[in-house]
Amino acid sequence: MNFLATLRVSLKALRINKLRSGLTMLGIVIGVGAVIVMIAVGNGAQARVEDQIRALGSNIIIVISGSGHSGGARGGAGSQPTLTEDDAYAIAREIGEVQAAAPSLRGSGQVIAGNANWSTLFYGTTPDYLEVRDWPLAEGRGFQSSDMNGAAKVALVGETVAKNLFGDESPLDQVIRVRKVPLTVIGVLAHKGQNMMGQDQDDVILMPLSTARNRVLGGVQAKVRSIGAIMVKVRQNADMKAAETHIKELLRQRHRIQPEADDDFFLRNLSEILDAQEASSRVLALLLAAVASVSLLVGGIGIMNIMLVSVTERTREIGLRMAVGARSRDILTQFLVEAVTLSLIGGFAGIALGIGAAEVIGRTAGWRIELSGAAIVLSMGFSAAVGVFFGFYPARKASRLLPIEALRYE
Amino acid sequence: MQKPVRTPEPAAPLVRAQELVKDYPAGETVVPALRGVSITIAAGEFVAVMGPSGSGKSTFMNLLGCLDRPTSGRYWLGGEEISTLSGDQLARVRNRQIGFVFQHFNLLARTSALDNVALPLLYSGCEAAERRARAARRLDQVGLAERMDHQPSQLSGGQQQRVAIARALVNDPRLVLADEPTGALDTHTSVEIMALLQSLNRAGITIVLVTHEHDIAAYAGRIVSFRDGRITEDRPNAAAEAAPEIAAG
To answer: Which residues does A205 contact at the CB level (< 8 Å), separation at least 6?
Structure first.
C-alpha cells in the first residue's frame, strides 16, 4: 500500500469522524492559542517598560556636584559646584566604557515670548547632551561649536515649552527671553513624554553651556568652568558597575581627594530604578509564561486523552483491517498520518486563534502586544508532538496484537 | 504470487493441519482450547464446523484464517507452511488467499458498501479504478448492485452480511471462512445467506463455516464436530449434495 493511498485512507477516516476529529483538534487549538496570547501579553508589558527606559535615556550615569555647608546646615547634592566642565571632557576621553559625557548647568525661571510667558527649567550644556539622552530634534538644528565658544544667544525648546509659548506656530527663529536674556530658537526637541517619575521631560529649554553660565545665570555660577552635573552615557553592553568605578576613581584623582576622605560628588544611576521596574515586568512575563505552560500542559493532556480514547476505541477497526490484509506498518502509517494531520490543522488554527485573540486583547484592553515567534513554534511543536505521540502509541500497540485479539477488543 | 487454484491436485489438499494445539493463559493456569486437531480439506469443499460453545471450533477457525497462532502443531495452506511465517507474511496470506465473513459483519461504519468491499484491495496495492471495478462486480454478484453507495447503517442485517461476503470474495481467495455468518440474522435471511454461500461453493470456492445450528450445517457437504478441543466426528453430508440449488437473493 503506497503512501498516497494511506494518506487518502487517513483523510477519509478523519472526515468520517468529524466530531472526534474536531474534539481532538480543539485541545490543540486551545493549547497553542492560549500560549501565544499569554506570551504576547507578557512580552508586550516587558517591551513597554523597555521603551520607557529607552525614552529616559538608557545606560545613563548622572554625576552631581557635592554638597556644601554654611554654618552647621549642609546643603543638598549639587549645592557646592565641585564639578567642572573639564571633568566631563576627561570622563568622555579617558574612560573606555563611556560613549559620551555632557556637562550641564541647571536653572529655572520665567520665559517670555511675545505676549506669552511660561515658567520652565533650562539647561546649559553641550551638543553631547542630545546624544546622551537619545533625543533627536523634531525640527531646526542643534548647537555648533561656534555657538558653544561664543556663548551664542540660541536655544532649543522642548515640545511643551513650544506649545505654551507659540501654540501651533513654529518656534523656529523666534526670540524667547529667558530671565530677560533674548535667545533665538534654532531647534525644537522631539517629543519624549513623561519620565518614570511623571515629570514632563518636554518642559525644558536647552542652551549652550557658556550662554547659560555667562549670560543667563551669572552670579555664583559664573565661577570659571564649574557645572552642576555631568550626564554620562555608557556604551551599549558595557558594564555599568565598571563604568561607575572608573568615573569615581578618575574624579577622585582629578579632585585630589585623600584615600580616607569622602567623595565631593554623587553618582546616580537611573538604571537602578529602572532595573527594579524591569525586574517586576520580567516577573510578570515569567508568571504569564508559567500560566501558559500550564495551559499547554492541560491542552496536552486533553490531546492525549482524546487521542488515546479514539484510537483505542478503533482497535476493532484495526483488527478488521489486519484481518483483510493490512500489515502492521500500514496501520501505523495510517494512524500516524491521521495524528499528524490533526495536529497540523489544529496547530495552525491555534496560531490563527492566538494571533487573533492577541490582537483583540491589544485593541480592547489597550495593552501592548508583542507576538513571539519562539512561543508560536514551541507551543505548536509541543502540541504536535503530544498529538502525534498519543495518536501513534495506541495504534502501535494495537498493530502489534494478533488480528483476533484486536477484533475481539472490547 | 500463485493464481488461485480452483481444481485441486489430489496430492496437495488446500488445507492440511497437523496436531494443532492452542492454549490460552488465564491467570496462573492455562486453558486448553485445542488439544491436537488434524484435518485435511480439499479445494472446493464446503465444510461445516460444529460444536457447543467452548468446544474450540472458533479457535480452530481463527488458526485456519491466520488470525491467531497455534501454540504448537503445523498448518499448510495450498502447500505452503503457515506456522513459520512472519506477521507481514501472514497479512499477505490473509489478503491474497483467505476471505472472512464474521458473525457481526465487521463493516466500517459511515463507509459506503463499495468502499467496504474494496478494503482488502487497498492492502494488495490495486489501483483505485480497478478497486472500484472489482468491488462493484462482487457487490453485483451478491445482489447488491443497487446499494453500492449505501452505508452499513442504511442496510438490513442480511444486506450487511452480503456486503461482508462480497468483501470476502473481492480478492479471489482460495478459502472463505465464515464464523457463525447467520448468528445475528433471522431465519429467513439466514436461509438466503446460506443459499448464497452454497451457490458460491458450487462455483468452485472452498468454504469453511462455523455454526452451532444443525439446519445451517446441513448446507455443507461435510460436517466436522468439535468437543473439548478435539474433533469427535467428521462425516460427509450427502443431503447437501442432493439438495436443490436455491437461487441467491
So the answer is: A111, A120, A121, A122, A123, A155, A156, A157, A158, A161, A176, A178, A183
Chain B residue closest to A17 (CA)? B110
* Interchain proximity B62–A404, CB inside 8 Å: yes
Tell me the residues of chain A between 317 and 356 that have a Cβ less than 8 Å away from chain B: 317, 320-330
Report the distance separating Cα B133 and Cα B127, nearest Å. 10
**Residues of B at the A interface, defined by Cβ within 8 angstroms:** 62, 65-69, 87-88, 91-92, 94-96, 100, 102, 106, 108-111, 119-120, 122-125, 167, 171
Residue listed under C-alpha cell 477497526: A317
Chain A residue with Cα closest to B59: A404
Sorted by sequence, the CB contacts under 8 Å of residue B110 that are 6+ apart come out as A16, A17, B151, B153
Residue owning grid cell 438466503 = B192
Residue in A9, A16, A325 closest to B92 by CB: A325
Q: Is A233 on the interface with B (CB under 8 A)?
A: no
Contact flag B125-A402 (C-beta cutoff 8 Å): no
- Please say whether the dihedral angle defined by the alpha carbons of residues A134, A135, A139 and A141, taken in this order, is positive or negative: negative
What interhelical angle do B113-122 and B157-169 show, nearest 10? 30
ipTM: 0.90
Q: State the CB neighbour count (10 A cutoff) for residue A272.
A: 9
Residue A122's H or E segment, with its range, is strand A116-125
Query: What is the residue-averaged pLDDT of chain A?
Result: 84
Q: What's the predicted TM-score (pTM) here?
A: 0.68
Alpha helices by DSSP H, listed for A314-327, are 315-323
Is A325 close to B94, i.e. CB distance below 8 A? yes
Closest CA–CA distance from residue B159 to any residue of chain A (Å): 19
3-state helix, strand, coil in chain B (%, to 5): 35, 25, 40
Q: What is the 3-state secondary structure (H, E, C) of A185-244?
A: EEEEECCCCECCCCCECCCEEEEEHHHHHHHHHCHHHHCCCEECEEEEEECCCCCHHHHH
Please judge whether A325 and B69 are an interchain contact, meaning their C-beta atoms are less than 8 angstroms apart. no
The whole-angstrom separation of Cα A369 and Cα A125 is 38
Find out whether B162 and B148 touch, Cβ atoms under 8 Å: no
Note the pLDDT tens digit of each residue in B43-70. Answer: 999 999 999 988 999 999 999 999 999 9
Q: What is the dihedral of CA B171, B175, B179, B185, to 10 degrees?
A: 60
Measured N-to-C along each axis, helices A328-365 and A3-16 cross at an angle, to the nearest 10 degrees, of: 60
- Backbone phi and psi for residue B89, each to the nearest 5 degrees, phi listed first: -65, -35
Give CA separation, B178 vs A50, A163, B100, B207, B223, in Å: 76, 96, 6, 7, 14
Nearest to B158 by CA among B180, B134, B181: B181
Beta partners for A118?
A: A111
Q: Give the distance from residue B173's alpha carbon to the nearest chain A alpha carbon, in angstroms.
A: 11
Instruction: Provide, as residue numbers in chain A, all residues whose Cβ is less than 8 Å from the Cβ of B96.
Output: 325
A384-407 burial, b if ≥16 CB within 10 A, otherwise e? Answer: bebbbebbbbbbeebbebbbbebb
pLDDT tens, B128-187? Answer: 899 999 999 999 999 999 999 999 999 999 999 999 999 999 999 999 999 999 988 999
Q: What's the grid cell of residue A279? A: 525586574
